[in-house]
UniProtKB/TrEMBL annotation:
Family note: Belongs to the sigma-70 factor family. ECF subfamily.
PANTHER family: RNA POLYMERASE ECF-TYPE SIGMA FACTO, RNA POLYMERASE SIGMA FACTOR HI_1459-RELATED
Protein name: Sigma-70 family RNA polymerase sigma factor
Transmembrane segment boundaries: none
InterPro entries per the UniProt record, alphabetical: RNA_pol_sigma-70-like, RNA_pol_sigma-70_dom, RNA_pol_sigma70_r2, RNA_pol_sigma70_r4_t2, RNA_pol_sigma_r2, RNA_pol_sigma_r3/r4-like, WH-like_DNA-bd_sf
Residue ranges constituting the RNA polymerase sigma-70 region domain according to the UniProt record: 38-104
Record flagged with keyword DNA-binding: yes
Ranges for domain RNA polymerase sigma factor 70 region 4 type: 135-187
Keywords tagged on the record: DNA-binding, Sigma factor, Transcription, Transcription regulation
Keyword Nucleus: no
Length: 195
């Protein structure tokens, strides 16, 4: 069917900046198929980010779904002064931050996703020690404030620059540095027994 966006996605190489820009423009004009391509392309990274921030797959999936619904609604307002992925990071991060703030002060340990099965050749003692260390890290992460946790995850696990984090979270560069510093200090203290 002419004008439905299939020609654009068939001709443009997948993953190029031009392709992404065209998809965003088309989706902003109401092209659901273009938006579906964007969702498929960005869902894995956004789910990984949400999992790292929330520590619970169901919460992460809900946050990402909410973020994509919000992105679809707000896409006509997207000014394209930042990359679509940066804008989407901001939406997902805000959804996760809202969920973290609404939680009880400490997350239950059973909310932490199960670790991958240990190597069958690893000793049972090593497997128990690894699990205990992972549980200690989960408790330490749960003790961070939601704001510190978000900044630390974006910096240490997602590899974003301080400037990108400031833009994503909507705070000053100095505030980002302070939150990452305090999170690192808290985690270092909490994990000192595991060194």
């Amino acid at each position: 069917m002419p004008g439905n966006g299939n020609e654009m996605t068939a001709r443009a190489p997948q993953g190029t900046r031009t392709d992404e820009t065209l998809l965003v423009v088309r989706a902003g004009e109401g092209d659901e198929e273009a938006f579906e391509v964007l969702v498929r392309r960005h869902s894995p990274a956004m789910l990984q980010l949400a999992m790292r921030l929330l520590g619970d797959r169901a919460d992460a999936e809900d946050a990402v779904q909410d973020a994509f619904v919000s992105a679809w609604r707000k896409l006509p307002e997207f000014r394209r002064d930042a990359a679509f992925s940066t804008w989407l990071h901001r939406i997902v991060t805000n959804r996760c931050l809202n969920r973290l703030r609404s939680r009880r002060p400490a997350a239950a340990l059973d909310a932490v996703p199960e670790q991958a099965a240990p190597d069958h050749q690893a000793s049972p003692a090593r497997a128990v020690e690894s699990r205990a260390a992972a549980d200690a890290l989960a408790r330490a992460m749960a003790d961070l404030s939601p704001e510190q946790r978000v900044c630390w995850v974006l910096r240490e696990m997602q590899g974003l620059s301080y400037e990108s984090i400031a833009d994503t979270v909507g705070i000053s560069l100095q505030a980002v540095r302070g939150r990452v510093f305090r999170a690192r200090r808290s985690l270092t203290e909490a994990m000192s027994a595991w060194r």
